[in-house]
Structures are given as C-alpha cells and as structure tokens.
C-alpha cells in the first residue's frame, strides 16, 4: 500500500512538473497579432525587399533622366601638349617639319530642349600655342579664344527625349503599382499563413481537450474494472483510446511547430524566436453591394492600370518602329567669335566672326518591305495588349462575383457549425453520463468525442474562411467593407 502511495505521489509530481514547464514556455512565448506580423513582413520579407529595390531603381532612373534635362557643365583642361611631325604639304609640294607646343582649356555648357528635342551648346576654348614651321622658318606664339553657341535640331521625326522621359515615368508608375500589388499579395499570404498557424494552434488545443477528456474516461473505466463493475476488455479499449488520443495530440504539436517555422520564414522573423498568434476572428454579418464592389474594382484595380501602361508602351514601340528607315533631317546652326594675339589682354583686338549653317536629310529609298512588316508586327502586339485589358476587366468582374457568392455561403456555414458545436457538446455530456453509469462503451464515447472535436474545428475553419474571403474582396475591389473605406496601398517609399 505504501509503494502504491509513493507511485501515485511520484506520478502527480511528474505531472505537475510537466504542466509547470509548459506554463513557463507559454509565458516566454511572444504573442503576435496579424497587424504586427504584417508590419514585420513588410520590412523583412525577401519578396518585399526585392520589390522595394526595383522601385528604388525605377525612381533613380527617372531622377537621372530629369537631371539630364538640366544644363550640363563640363571643363576640359590640357595643361601641356607637344607634337613633332614631318608631313608632305600639298600646297608647296614639299616636305615640311613642324614642332608645336600648346596648352588649352575648354568650358562647355549643354542644354537639352525637351519641347523640340533640340540641343543648345555654348563652348569657349582658350589656349596658348607655340609653333615652328620649317617651310617659313618662323615661330608663331600667342593666345587664342574661340567662343561659340550652336543648335542641333532634329527634323521630321519623333521627339526621342520626350518619349524616353515618358517611358521612365511609366516604368516608375509600374514599379509603384507592383510594389503596392506585392504589398497586397503579401498581406494575403501572411494572413493565410497567420490563420493557418491559428488553425494548428486550435487543433492542438482541441486535441489537448480530447486528451484530457479521454484521461477522465480512462480513469472512470479503470475504477470500474478495479471495482469489478466492468469487464477487463473495457479497460483494454480505454487504454487504446487514450493512446490514440495522445498520439493525435503529439501529431498536432508537430504540425503546430512546423506551421510556426514556415510563418517565420515568410515574414522574415528569426527562426529562434517563439510566438503564439492572437487572431481576431469575431465575425459580424457585413452587407455587401455587389454592384458597388464591381464598380469600385473596375475603377481602382491596379492590374488594369498596368495593362494600360503596357498598351502605352506598345504605342511607343509602334512609333519607334514607324521611324525605322524614315525620312528625317537635322538642322545645325552655329555662331561664334574668334580672336588671337601674342598678348593675353589683346586676344579680341581684331576678332573674327565664325558662322555655320548645315541641313542634313536622310531619304530612304528601298528596304524590301522590312518597315511594313515590322509595323504590322507592332500593331498586332498593340492589339493583343488591348485584348488582354478587356480580359483583365472580365476577370475582375468574375472574381468579385465569386467572392460575393462565397461570402453568402460562408455566413450560412458559420451559423450551421455554431449550432452543431452546441449540439455536439450536449450529446457528449449526455453520453459521458451514460458511460459513467455503465450504459455506454468506451468505443462509443470515443466516437462522440471525435464528433465534438470535428465540430469545433469546423467552426474555427468556417470563421477563418470568412475572414480570408473578406480579405480577398478587399484586394479585388480595393475597398474595405469592414471599415467601409477605400484601400490606398503604399505606392512610394522614402529613399534616404
């Protein structure tokens, strides 16, 4: 009897130690909400980091192009240059040796003109030259300065500078849309993973409750067998039920830990940090006007704008294709003032005007149909992108309609599963009393316990499915029907 009492004490002590350790582990765990998880994911998720870097690249390319449209200043300095050469002079039909030493600097200001795709340049070249010629047997020394302003204007062609700027603006807008879409996609992924962790957490809790209930039924069966009120076969069945329930509980623990690790990787959380989720799955019936949802989705969906950007880029490609082997021209104008003198302060004592005008035309003659075929190919690509836009609009409408129908169906399922839990709990309590009175076998009680666990899990899954469908509707329409406000995803970031 004493040994039996000692064994009982040891069992109770061990059981208390296990629950104490579990309690400490729960206390040390970090409780994380969905909003906190989304903030961590936005900063640390690998996919968001890549999308953010792409946005920075597009922004900096546009910044560079805008900077290139401003005046460009450059200074070229040649401190010393020496040449010695012997060349045949056609003018005198003799060989002539020449030695030249020079030094010069050139200051240039270049200004692109966005409106006309022209380029205006201001150039000032100042230098000193010391040159000896064998033919004249003389040495010429002195300073010189050449100041000129020139204009280079393309004619009969499209404005390449303006198109390049517009393409970069569209590229940035597309990157901003991609960033916002990735943010919404991440919200969906994180929410799904968050609720999956919660499902596993609830499954673990339900399995724990089932294990506790089965321990109680096992103790009841054991007491009956020990008192001679039940056959020993009932004890064997109770042991099997307890072992099965314990195994299911342990499996749910493994699934829960695996789900948490996958969630950590998704949001960029440390794998060594433990946590529990704190979801808000309270569900209220939310009235949804499907016509308003479709109208808002068609007006604001970013995928539609991306399709429009693709069409605009295709139109630019068509313009460039039509410029292949095109008739075009270039007008060049230049005026300047040149002066030279042995003395620095008299460089412009006797200045000379320099002017030049040039007109260049490129006239295509025959390209064997290359331009015509390339234009047809570009037009086909443009039309294909327009078809894709129409298809995307239809997909938006169909997606919203399907989500709306699913929400109505899920509302009914929530009510049904909620009632089924109540019925399953009452059924289990009644049959537990029957089991205590010896009117029910352990195998039958296990069936009612499994039914209760299934109903509890079904209710949790129905609530989560409804929450996820509401999130899908928000993503599809860019309107939050829970908060009754439009969704404005973050589309730009600060880059310091």
What would you say this structure looks like, in words?
By secondary structure, the chain is an alpha+beta fold. It folds into 2 domains: 21-58 and 166-313 and 379-486, Outer membrane efflux proteins (OEP) (Up-down Bundle), CATH 1.20.1600.10; 72-113 and 118-157 and 331-363, no CATH class. It is 60% helix and 22% strand. The strands form 3 sheets. The chain has a 6-stranded antiparallel beta sheet with strand order 2-3-4-5-7-8, with no helix packed on it. It has a two-stranded parallel sheet with strand order 1-6. The model is unreliable at 1-28 and 492-496 (pLDDT under 50).
List keywords for this structure.
2 domains, six-stranded antiparallel β-sheet, elongated, Outer membrane efflux proteins (OEP), 496 residues, alpha+beta
The computed structural class is alpha+beta
Cα-based radius of gyration, to the nearest Å: 41 Å
Q: Could you give a short account of the major beta sheet?
A: 6 strands, antiparallel
Portion of residues in beta strands equals 15-25%
Q: Work out the helix count.
A: 9
**What is the CATH homology-level superfamily of the largest domain?**
Outer membrane efflux proteins (OEP)
Through-space gap between termini: 78 Å
The SSE order reads HEHHEEEEHHEHHEEHHEE
CATH architecture of the largest domain: Up-down Bundle
- The domain count comes to 2
Instruction: Detail the poorly predicted runs.
Output: 1-28, 492-496
Mean pLDDT: 83
Count of strand segments: 10
Measured as a percent range, the helix fraction is: 55-70%
């Amino acid at each position: 009897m004493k040994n039996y009492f000692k064994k009982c004490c040891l069992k109770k002590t061990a059981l208390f130690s296990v629950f104490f350790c579990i309690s400490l582990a729960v206390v040390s765990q970090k409780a994380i909400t969905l909003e906190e998880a989304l903030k961590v994911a936005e900063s640390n998720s690998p996919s968001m980091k890549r999308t953010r870097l792409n946005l920075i690249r597009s922004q900096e390319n546009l910044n560079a192009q805008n900077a290139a449209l401003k005046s460009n200043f450059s200074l070229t300095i040649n401190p010393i240059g020496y040449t010695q050469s012997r060349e045949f002079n056609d003018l005198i039909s003799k060989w002539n040796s020449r030695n030249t030493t020079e030094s010069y600097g050139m200051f240039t200001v270049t200004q692109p003109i966005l409106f006309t795709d022209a380029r205006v340049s201001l150039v000032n070249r100042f230098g000193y030259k010391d040159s000896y010629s064998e033919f004249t047997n003389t040495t010429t020394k002195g300073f010189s300065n050449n100041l000129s302003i020139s204009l280079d204007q393309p004619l009969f062609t499209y404005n390449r500078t303006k198109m390049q700027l517009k393409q970069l603006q569209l590229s940035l807008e597309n990157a901003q849309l991609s960033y916002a879409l990735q943010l919404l996609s991440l919200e969906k992924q994180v929410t799904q993973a968050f609720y999956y962790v919660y499902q596993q957490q609830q499954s673990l809790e339900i399995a724990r409750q089932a294990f506790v209930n089965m321990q109680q039924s096992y103790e009841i069966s054991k007491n009956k067998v020990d008192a001679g009120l039940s056959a020993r076969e009932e004890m064997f069945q109770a042991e099997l039920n307890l072992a099965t329930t314990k195994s299911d509980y342990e499996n749910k623990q493994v699934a829960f830990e695996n789900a948490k690790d996958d969630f950590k990787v998704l949001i960029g959380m440390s794998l060594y940090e433990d946590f529990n989720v704190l979801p808000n799955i309270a569900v209220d019936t939310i009235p949804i006007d499907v016509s308003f949802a479709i109208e808002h989705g068609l007006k604001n969906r970013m995928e539609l704008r991306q399709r429009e950007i693709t069409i605009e880029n295709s139109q630019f490609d068509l313009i460039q294709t039509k410029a292949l082997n095109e008739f075009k021209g270039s007008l060049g104008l230049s005026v300047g003032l040149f002066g030279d003198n042995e003395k620095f302060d008299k460089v412009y004592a006797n200045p000379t005007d320099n002017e030049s005008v040039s007109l260049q035309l490129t006239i295509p003659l025959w390209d064997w149909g290359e331009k015509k075929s390339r234009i047809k190919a570009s037009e086909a690509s443009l039309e294909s992108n327009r078809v894709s836009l129409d298809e995307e609009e239809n997909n938006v409408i169909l997606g919203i309609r399907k989500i709306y129908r699913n929400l109505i169906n899920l509302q009914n399922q929530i009510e049904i599963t909620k009632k089924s839990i109540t019925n399953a709990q009452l059924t289990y309590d009644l049959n537990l009393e029957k089991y205590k009175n010896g009117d029910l076998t352990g195998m039958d009680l296990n069936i009612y316990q499994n039914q209760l666990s299934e109903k509890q899990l079904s209710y949790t899954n129905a609530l989560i499915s409804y929450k996820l469908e509401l999130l899908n509707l928000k993503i599809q329409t860019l309107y939050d029907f829970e908060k009754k406000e439009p969704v404005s995803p973050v589309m730009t970031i600060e880059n310091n």
